[in-house]
């Protein structure tokens, strides 16, 4: 059921023990929004914990409270008054949603593709990041944002907007970020931390870019990362930014091996609706940034995604 911000605020006020979670393959907005809200809730005396069912990339070590993030243990049950699912719909939290017994479930998200399966859903696709929504939510609760919370929330806004460059960046986004900077967040510190890569990661990315292929008369640029290459390409962070700059491209994407016959696809566009492409494979996202998982051998997965992209481009 869709609810408004005041109702979401009330659900949080009414709960004492709160479990916060987000999607697997964590990004700045998932880690930032859960940790940001955790800091606020603990500050007002609630028993709040963050559970994410995946490894947390090293770059997020700059976020206060990062060591507090738990991974659900196999076979264990967790109880809470409220489960808050942030920056994703219910079905992509790995083992978290299935292992939590919560009296109520609140979903807070900004993805247009949200399946609206949650008991209570606060959805605002006009916001660039879930962290932007969290700032509004904390205000709606009559609260103030601490420096720890602000640092987490700023990070999610910055990463989901490509540091305020993508088309989802609005005056509201900038006002919110400005407020967080007034609280004391250092934009340069966050930027440096988010961009950090090891020497090996940079070299692996160079090799990935070397295998770049162009399709659809130069309108599509793609990198295919098979099993062997996936073992060295630890991070694909920033890879699509290097492809987006290629003149004439409308869609850029990579397809990367995850496990046998399973590939992750990540797409960026300059206007074509890539979330629609992702949805045909049970994925989702935003108009200009979306992803999905393909279950097929390499050649077939490659053919499937190229066909779907070609069809949407020529629609
Ligand atoms: P990414 O390319 O992984 O940065 O994701 C781009 C956008 O698409 C993000 O907002 C993701 O939450 C969303 N997304 C990526 N993969 C999936 C998926 N398998 N299912 C649903 N949404 C996804
Ligand atoms: Mn996210
Ligand atoms: Mn997000």
What is this structure, in a nutshell?
By secondary structure, the protein is of the alpha/beta class. It has twelve helices and eleven strands.
Characterization of the model:
The chain has 315 residues and is an alpha/beta fold. The chain folds into two domains: 5-195, inorganic pyrophosphatase (n-terminal core), CATH 3.90.1640.10; 199-313, Diaminopimelate Epimerase, Chain A, domain 1, CATH 3.10.310. The protein has twelve helices and eleven strands. It has helices at 5-14, 28-43, 96-99, 130-140, 147-160, 171-183, 187-195, 199-210, 227-230, 239-244, 274-280, 298-313; strands at 17-21, 47-51, 78-86, 100-109, 120-123, 213-215, 220-225, 251-259, 262-269, 284-285, 289-295. α2 links the parallel β1 (17-21) and β2. α1 (5-14) crosses α4 and α5 runs antiparallel to α6 (171-183). The longest helix is centred in the first third of the chain and has 16 residues, at 28-43. One manganese (II) ion (MN) binds next to loops.
Number of domains: 2
The portion of residues assigned to helices is 25-40%
Q: Helix tally?
A: 12
Helix-strand category: alpha/beta
Low-confidence stretches: none
According to CATH, what is the topology of the largest domain? inorganic pyrophosphatase (n-terminal core)
**What percent strand?**
15-25%
* H/E series: HEHEEHEEHHHHHEEHHEEHEEH
Per the principal axes of the C-alpha atoms, what is the gross shape? globular
How would you write the strand order of the largest sheet?
Answer: 6-7-8-9-11-10
CATH class bucket of the largest domain: Alpha Beta
Number of strands: 11
| Terminal CA distance | 33 Å
Compounds present? Answer: adenosine monophosphate, manganese (II) ion
What is the residue-averaged pLDDT? 97
């Amino acid at each position: 059921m869709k609810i408004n911000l005041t109702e979401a605020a009330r659900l949080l006020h009414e709960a004492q023990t709160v479990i916060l979670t987000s999607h697997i393959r964590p990004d700045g907005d998932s880690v930032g929004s859960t940790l940001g809200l955790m800091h606020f809730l603990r500050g007002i005396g609630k028993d709040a914990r963050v559970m994410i069912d995946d490894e947390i990339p090293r770059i997020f070590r700059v976020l206060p409270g990062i060591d507090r993030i738990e991974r659900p243990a196999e076979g264990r049950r967790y109880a809470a008054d409220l489960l808050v699912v942030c920056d994703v719909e219910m079905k992509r939290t790995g083992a978290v949603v299935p292992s939590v017994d919560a009296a109520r479930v609140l979903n807070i998200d900004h993805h247009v593709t949200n399946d609206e399966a949650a008991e209570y859903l606060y959805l605002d696709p006009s916001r660039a990041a879930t962290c932007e929504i969290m700032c509004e939510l904390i205000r709606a609760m009559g609260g103030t944002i601490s420096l720890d919370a602000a640092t987490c929330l700023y990070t999610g806004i910055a990463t989901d907007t490509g540091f305020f460059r993508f088309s989802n960046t609005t005056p509201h986004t900038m006002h919110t970020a400005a407020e967080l900077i007034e609280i004391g967040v250092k934009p340069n510190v966050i930027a440096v931390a988010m961009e950090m890569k090891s020497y090996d990661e940079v070299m692996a990315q160079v090799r990935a870019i070397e295998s770049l292929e162009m399709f659809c008369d130069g309108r599509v640029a793609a990198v295919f990362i098979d099993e062997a290459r996936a073992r060295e390409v630890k991070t694909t962070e920033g890879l699509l930014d290097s492809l987006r700059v290629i003149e004439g491209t409308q869609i850029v994407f990579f397809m990367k091996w995850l496990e046998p016959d399973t590939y992750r696809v990540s797409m960026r566009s300059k206007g074509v609706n890539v979330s629609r492409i992702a949805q045909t494979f049970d994925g989702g996202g935003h108009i200009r940034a979306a992803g999905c998982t393909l279950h097929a051998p390499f050649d077939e997965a490659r053919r499937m995604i190229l066909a779907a992209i070609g069809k949407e481009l020529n629609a």
